[in-house]
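Methods — Computational structure assignment.
A single polypeptide chain was analysed. Its primary sequence is given first, followed by the predicted tertiary structure written as structure tokens.
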Amino acid sequence: MSGPSGSRVFPEGSAAEESTVGAAGNSPGGTSPHELVRFAHNSERQFAKLLDFYQVAWEYEPVEFVLERDRQGRPAAAFRPDFYLPAYDLFIEITTLNQKLVTKKNRKVRRLGELYPEVRIKVLYQRDYLSLLVKYALELPDRPGVPSPAMSSEVVGMIEVRRLVDPEAIHTRAS
């Protein structure tokens, strides 16, 4: 969602706040951007770590979308996706919660689509997240610092990250 000069355009009715932006190599002192952010959940940190590794720019929880207002016009329900990937104009929501909470989140994502049809969002469910952990040898969700058991090549990894955010953008084969 960019304006004519490249500045972010936030949907009407959403609350824009200063966000945390990440892109590998853009942090002072060689620190990766994911190391500078306080994430709500380890799964978000791991996803940011993967994006940093493949130099995909990201913003953490940059926009809160109002989904419902009370009689006085104040926000009564809102949704703040976990990540925004500016290069893909795509929001990512990561959910590793139990099914009851996932159902509630799915309702919010559906409502977001109804109110803001121009907003692109992809939900990564627990199975998607666990697949990323295994595929890219990231940490186990309940054991920070402990790598998962499998490794994969960097070339395949970059293709998978791009496929995750934009399936039509992949025209390259891994060698």
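Note: Residues 28 and 36 are 10 Å apart (CA to CA).
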